[in-house]
Design a protein that fits this description.
Blueprint lengths: L25 H4 L4 H11 L5 E6 L3 E3 L16 H10 L5 E5 L7 E5 L1 H8 L5 E6 L4 H15 L4 H14 L5 H7 L4 H11 L3 H6 L8 H13 L1 H14 L6 H16 L7 E7 L2 E9 L5 E5 L7 H12 L1
Parallel strand pairs: 2-4, 3-5
Antiparallel strand pairs: 1-5, 3-4, 6-7, 7-8
Length: 315
Amino acid sequence: MAREKTVINTDLSAANINRRQKTGMHGTEKRTGRGRISKLKNEATPHNAVELTVHVSKCRMFPYNDRILEGLNMENCKSLIDDINANSQLQPVVARKNPDSDTDYEIIFGTRRFFSCQHTRDKVIKIELIDVDDKQAYKIMRSENDERDDTSAYEKAVNAILVMSEVYDGNQKDYCMENNIAEATFSEWKAITDLDEVIVACIPSMFELSVNQATKLRTVINKKAKAKQAVFDEAKELTGTNLNTTAVVKKLIAAGEMAIKPRSAGPIEKIYAIAGDKNGVIAKRAVNGKITIKVSKVASSDKASVIKALAAFIQ
């Protein structure tokens, strides 16, 4: 039976996925493969690993892999594609049997190699097949990607919410405890996935958005309704501009903060006619709050009116 998938409210099409800088060359890939599996045995207990060469059409990505496949393209994988065509695939990806099929395989990690093999002449891929469940596979994948430290905060955030929802039945505490993730960190990741679509649409690359930037932006939006509206209005203005991600986020935050920034009052002067003198009382309040009062000789004869005028000014 096919898994029932949880939909995360994040519009990937709104992000510029062509800006990923990683290349996925063999120099990086050499850190994976058999050596990695032996290091992970104690954590996820994979056993009976078998190396196979299969057609790429027999494979799909492990649905809880935290690298977004759409973030890879012919440009940022060209070196790896050329190398595989010339020298074959140096290290196998790690995979398991697809639990929804008897013949297909799910690649637990090795996303770049999978994408690259899909674009080689032979379209075959070497896999190291292990027997693990969803939680074990997820821990292996996280351990590998954390060691490489080249997945973006955006990818980690989208993936964490998905895995917590589906694999851990929505139990955030269990997810964090089993994967050694601080709940504060999980909350910061949510700052990224909770961004409204109008904001996501104006950010040039969600892959470049940091947790710190997303947290600051969410804090401003949550302060007051007019701050949120100011951020949304600014986002619409910035959509399609040539600014980079950092510049866009700074402008969004500044727009929200400006909307709720207290405005200093300018100097105030009021004149009251008293006892037939049109300049009977002149009251002034300076920017610093200091009040000065001038009462004419004629107006001083009507003390009650002077007091009434001063009371009105102070209010």
